[in-house]
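CO-FOLDING WORKSHEET

Operator: S.A.
Ligand of interest: MRU
Run index: 374
Mode: holo prediction, single chain
Checklist:
[x] sequence pasted
[x] SMILES validated
[ ] output reviewed
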Amino acid sequence: MKINGKATRSIWLEPDGWSVGILDQTQLPHRVGFLRLTTCADAAHAISSMQTRGAPLIGAVAAYGVALALRDDASDENLERAYALLLATRPTAINLKWALDEMMAAVRNRPREERVAVAYQRAKEICDEDVSINEAIGRNGLTIIEEIAARKKPDERVNVLTHCNAGWLATVDWGTATAPIYMAHDKGIAIHVWVDETRPRNQGASLTAFELGQHGVPHTVIPDNTGGHLMQHGLVDMAIVGTDRVTAKGDVCNKIGTYLKALAAKDNNVPFYVALPSPTIDFTVDDGVAEIPIEQRSAEEVATITGRTKDGRTETVTIVPEGSGVANYGFDVTPARLVTGLITERGIVAPSRDALERAFADHASRRRSSEAAE
Ligand SMILES: CSC[C@@H](O)[C@@H](O)C(=O)COP(=O)(O)O
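OUTPUT RECEIVED:
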């Protein structure tokens, strides 16, 4: 998608042909900053510090992290070390493990002298596949928006609520939840997005609002606790969120607060859709609430807030009394029963074991047999 009118992906190979460029998302929306990753440790740090983030994108960065590690040392020992270092960066999004397993499968049985080239090739494919998957998600999700638009009066717009950032900044391009929105907007459908600010890190307010604004999509940032009120007043036609992991029976893990929006949507008969690429499905996990590891991040993210001062400086201030306890759960799980449909690259899939198995039988058997081999 575009930044200041220039087509940009969230990750790229630098002109030197080996180092990896990413946007420094901790500087958005006030500054468009770039980072050059030259080692596996750089990639791991970028993921754990959330300079780069979003389930598909951390998988892509980790894939290049393996390539960078092998460039330094293509031994089995270093490959294992890189895998372990990158896997430990963040626990919840399964795309990270998926991408690392893909890299392992690609290079493990290759001679050392071939490993670097093979790793760069597979990392590039993972990025390109992400883009084409998201385009397909966009096309499939667009049909839902078109159906809603067809029921609207000529002066009415389609109101979509989203949480966190499942936009192009969270993927290589297009985004998952945002792909149908961008396509609807590009087609001339009057669409407006309610953007949950998404405390504590404000991915909605700082990233989703930024990218929608850059693409000219009308949007309004709302405090996280506003969605229920909007739904009660008929101001939300549908919700679309992304996800970090979908279980075999269709439970959806996503940014903390997603569950509350799904509950409010159910109570108000607002369709609640989840957009995801197939690498986000974890067929080895069944009950999302019981089984998905939920990342807990630092208290500081909750106790402070960072923003731009009137004179253009970035400043972080404390908003919690000294001595108060703080909890920072990064994600929650929305049970399948609250989800209207899963927007995937293979169509709209019901959030159920049968439907997921039918749509992704190839993935299901592959994931289970690789898990059994471990
Ligand atoms: C297409 S991105 C899907 C999810 O990764 C996204 O909704 C989300 O929760 C991101 O969380 P983050 O903690 O910013 O990495």
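REVIEW:
The pocket of MRU is lined by residues 53-56, 93, 164, 166, 170-171, 176, 203, 242-244, 254-255, 330 (CB under 6 Å).
The two ends are 38 Å apart (CA to CA).
[x] output reviewed
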